[in-house]
Amino acid sequence: MSTSKHQLPSTPWSAQSHWKPSWLSLCVLIPSLFLFGVGEGLLVNASLGSAPWAVLAQGISLKTGSNIGWGTLGISIIVMLGWIPLKQKPGLGTILNMTLIALGLGLTVHYLPIPESLTLRLLSIIFAIVLIGVCSSFYLTCKMGSGPRDGLMVGIFQNTGWKIGKIRICIEIIVCFLGWLLGGIIGIGTLLFAFGVGWVIQFCLSLMAKYY
């Protein structure tokens, strides 16, 4: 992907407006976000460490005595305030991000069995990282607004032109470190996610830029 453009690739499913999607945009956006949530659920079921943002939310809840859900909400609000100087705007994708990912996560955790062996748990984590990275690329190129955390990544990319993989890794490592300082629990799954998902996103976006 050419970083000189400082923009996400335009694809046949890219919408012309954050709030006025085409049918093709919705056909890509909705399953991408749901499967993103499935990937999050696979990480939870693997029980080898949560994603970095979940570690931060856990740390905040431990320090404040609040529910981890409130910690997650507070993080989302603060991150979205960081959108302002980065000139990011919410859209339909932002709303669907917060609903469909939660739906996919909840159904996966409830219905899919927890892997018993360490090998299966590690394979589940690797598959989840690839799934989340691929789905992130598809939903972001719908150009209908991103989730709070992805918006931070995209905003930095568009304002600096830095490689999106490096941006994502730096964000995840910083978040993971802060969560650990606050008492959040990290594991091998946390580290694999922090160092891996950014490169999957960058690879997928590079392919899209090349072929579209």
TrEMBL record:
The regions listed as transmembrane in this protein's record are 67-84, 91-112, 118-140, 173-201
> Which UniProt keywords are given for this protein, alphabetically ordered?
Membrane, Transmembrane, Transmembrane helix
Residue ranges annotated as coiled coil are none
Q: Keyword Transmembrane on this protein?
A: yes
Question: Do the record's keywords include Transmembrane?
Answer: yes
Q: Which Pfam families match?
A: DUF6198 (PF19700)
**Name the record gives this protein:** YitT family protein
What species is given as this protein's source? Pelistega ratti
Taxonomic lineage of the native organism: Bacteria, Pseudomonadati, Pseudomonadota, Betaproteobacteria, Burkholderiales
